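This section describes the prediction task in plain terms. A model, or a person checking by hand, is given the sequence of a single protein chain and must write out its three-dimensional structure as a string of tokens. No templates, partner chains or ligands are provided. The sample shown here is typical of the held-out split.
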Amino acid sequence: MSPSAISPVETPILVKKGVSSLLTSTAPSITPSTNISTAASHLSELNASLLHTTPTDSPKIVPALSSPEILSGNSCTDHMLTANWTSTTGWAPPHILPYGPLSLEPTASVLHYATTCFEGMKAYRGHDGQIRLFRPSLNCSRMVSSASRIALPAFDPRELEKLVKAFIAYEGPKWLPKSRPGTFLYLRPTLIANSAALGVSTPNEATLFIVAAFLPSIDEHPAVPLPSSGHITPQMRRAAKPGLKLLASCEDSIRAWPGGFGYAKVGANYAPSLIAQAEARASGYDSVLWLFGQNAEVTEAGTSNFMVVLRSREGRKQLKTAPLGDKIILDGVTRRSVLELARERLRGELEVVEEKFGMGEVVEAAREGRLVEAFTCGTAYFVSAVSEINYRGVDLDVPLAEGNIGTYAKAIKNWLRDIKYGNVQHPWGVVIGEVE
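The expected answer:
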């Protein structure tokens, strides 16, 4: 059934009731309801205190910085963390064990119905020698929201946070050595339904797992010099400019819709966007700027949140980004942090505005010289400057006041980097006690 055929009123109510029922049945300890069934009360909940460890007997070698292993994004650490759930017993004790393949039946729900959600986090080796996570409680709470949206079992987010901390405390000393300050590991907590049944139904088995991998930094987008001779293609000209180049989506392409699940970090949000992403890159753009509706409302850029700084006709500078109310966009941890820092440290200079705005407003601001800068933000891309947007076949240049980034994006990026790598002490940077 297409999104347009679904009632915008009935669907959220139906989903809300379903989520409430699922939370009550699978994680009663975090549910205020007093109507908890006897069966639910006997199910074991996720409990980090039961974590046990089986060390690997085949330890890997830590790859060198800038090695092919790191650049590939496919190199994981020695271990993974898993916890299994069933509808009859609840959560089994979590386990840190050697990294390796998962065992799934060909009829597993996740392989057919996209019953999977995940989080993206990073562990940072600070310049002060400490390992930190960045606001992990937000990721863990969001994962409960994502899981319950697709009928996966819920859990106390504080228990997941404890498991993430325990996992990186175990893996961190080797894979984020103190000799490499300013480096990070990417953490991927994932929950999948592995019920072996082809019927479309609520899963009765699930597996939570956490892996850690090396990823290259992708927040810098330097200019690529043009060749001294030969034919210069449009793709080459775009690459010769620093910053991200975005291709705005067409009216017939919709990433998410009101009342849907664009706000949840579920697998079904990503696969349908890959074709458009590939086409954008083939045309020399880095990502797709997803628009929605007849007014071409700006939502997200690729898998990141999008922000733009405009100067109003009255002279006020505004940092604008799409709102969360329609559940079209992800409540990104970096997004939230950018907005909070801007409100706190740029008060009086920059007004933060979370409201719907169309691409026409951006085009008009650019035409009148009121477009100040634009950038994307997220765990993977961190804070990345945008230098060009193609909208309806026309390339729109976005100013980069600092040469390769805008003034406000640069300031916010530096503030966040200082917190993550321990250059300043801040409650968002959660220090991890390491297992030596």
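For orientation: Residues 157-175 form the longest helix (19 residues).
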